Amino acid sequence: MSKSASATLDGAARPDGRPAASGPAFGILGAISGAHMINDMMQSLILAMYPVLKGSFALSFGQIGLITLTYQLTASLLQPLVGLFTDRRPQPHSLPLGMAATLTGLLLLALAPSFEVVLLAAACVGLGSSVFHPESSRIARLASGGRHGLAQSLFQVGGNTGTAIGPLLAAAVIVPFGQRSVAWFGLAALLGIALLLRVSRWYAAHPAVANRARKAAAVAPHPPRVVAGAIAVLLVLIFSKYFYVAGLSSFYTFYLIERFGLTVRDAQLHLFAFLFASAVGTVAGGPIGDRIGRKPVIWGSILGVAPFALLLPHADLFWTTVLTVVIGLVLSSAFSAILVYAQELVPGRVGTVSGLFFGFAFGMGGLGAAVLGLLADRTSIAFVYQAIAFLPLLGLVAALLPKTRRTA
């Protein structure tokens, strides 16, 4: 490894927490963000395939929600355990293996002859995510050069971009060529494995720096009771965000088709617009949090979206498109700020905290999709959109968060 690369990593682990002069390791951040894009793009293909799968297997909305529940619940249950284990024993070479599990799920999805095999494919994708996210989040922090919010935003924007382009690719490839065409996206998974092999080598070469970074940040900024209360508030905010996003994204194509008579292809393009706006909004949350503090970003992101969410069920097609883009931009800035805020509350436990919050986010997204799918079966998609419009109001609980020291 070059001296400059070593200096960059040493700066990322400086004991006083200040950014190193050499700044973030953007090459590693770019690689991990690119792998995140591929990982989440493959996940979003499942989401974008819902109309195709619904027609192929005559699925109900409840079964559609069950697919989301399967892959997100698999990830949510395993991620905290993976994070806890890797805090004690980092596993750099687990990253390519996680991507290989996602590739396996994608191939199963392409060849699935039944609904049960679709669920198995979804579980494999969830397994891949459970391995990928905790260690990747740790590497993003190590490569941050002290600019933790920026690094998490760059890492997150890769995932959000992948989520956004999934429906676009599905509209261009899967809708005209059918379920089996999903297998072609395995080539992207192979690229992801190549990127993660590079990142794993970079991480594995510096175990002493990783250990020193954990030990240097061992002093908690608040008493245990305050930390526990703040974590509980953050989990409420995650519930609000991801339960709402599950309802908005999982059933958005069906909502547009049912209410406005759009074709599947046009509905997926609208879904792309929402998800792309979410990717753009992600870039802002972390750097702004580095400058003004995490709490204002968290407060403004979740509570700030409430007026738009309340208007959405009553809008025509034009304003539905506008409102969902605004919602995506504003709401997506929250997660990077929440994650870094939590990492600062529980220093030295990056993997555990990342696994807990990624896992809880996945779990709430999956549970939301399943519950709201059942609700849609018993009522209507329009009623679901009216019901979830009040969830962002839970952003009020952000007022209970303690102040944290801002990054210099």
From TrEMBL:
Q: Which UniProt keywords apply?
A: Membrane, Transmembrane, Transmembrane helix
CDD domains hit by this protein: MFS_FsR
Q: Which Pfam families match?
A: MFS_1
Q: Which SUPFAM superfamilies match?
A: MFS general substrate transporter
GO MF terms, alphabetically ordered:
transmembrane transporter activity
> Is Hydrolase included in the keywords of this UniProt record?
no
Q: Where is the Major facilitator superfamily (MFS) profile domain?
A: 28-405
Q: Which domain of life is it from?
A: Bacteria
Q: Which residues cross the membrane?
A: 20-38, 117-133, 154-177, 183-205, 226-247, 267-285, 297-315, 321-341, 353-376, 382-401
The record's GO CC annotations read: plasma membrane
> Could you confirm whether the keyword Metal-binding appears in this record?
no
Name of this chain's protein: MFS transporter
Q: Which organism is this entry from? A: Derxia gummosa DSM 723
